[in-house]
């Protein structure tokens, strides 16, 4: 599979990854807990109970993954702000754990009632502390998986860098007419004029070159300054277009618009930038 094919369907793949990982974890823990119960000879715990425990926990964790991703976008662990972001994540792990516990207890009570039994969480303070110690580790594992996935994805699709011609130690220079793309141990060049549009992507911007996407560690404001005077225009808080690649502007009643590109893609145009874009195209 080519990177561009995967990226067109990345959201189902990413959702499937979390479902698979948490599902395997729930099944494995349910089986091993039942084996331990059988070895101990305990008759107090029914065989279905471990399955209720593990799957209630897994389902709530699955629901919390988008919440964690949204918080990570607000506090990314990146150079220059890692201490502040790490402290924010540590603080957020407390409500993360409380939501997890509240959700799984509610699900267990439903299952136990359906099975004609009662679920008891036990001593609140002791069990909340116990659950938090587990949840803070799970939180860390989730963050590790997110950053490892992004690292592998960037290496697979190729990561762009500014061509500085041996001046890496100097302050940032304006872009030449090339970007240096590093991909799986290879390096090649992409001309600035070949870029269709640029999209904000967390700590990166993404260069859209035909069907290919290349992440670049830069802010939208920074790349806008670097491309000043090269035929690019900001059309949205998260998009910059190559004016030569715009085929048509489709207006909406809301005042927003949509730019249709020569390559077949579309880019959102906000009211704030719409008039300026029309003037630049004219």
From TrEMBL:
Signal peptide: none
Membrane-spanning parts: 12-31, 51-71, 92-116, 136-153
Gene Ontology molecular-function annotations: DNA binding
Residue ranges of every copy of the HTH LytTR-type domain listed in the record: 179-282
Key word Transmembrane present: yes
Descriptive protein name: LytTR family DNA-binding domain-containing protein
This protein's UniProt keywords: DNA-binding, Membrane, Transmembrane, Transmembrane helix, Two-component regulatory system
Pfam families found in the cross-reference section: LytTR
Source organism (scientific name): Luteimonas salinilitoris
Keyword set includes Lipid metabolism: no
Gene3D superfamilies: LytTr DNA-binding domain
InterPro entries, sorted: LytR-like, LytTR_DNA-bd_dom, LytTR_MHYE
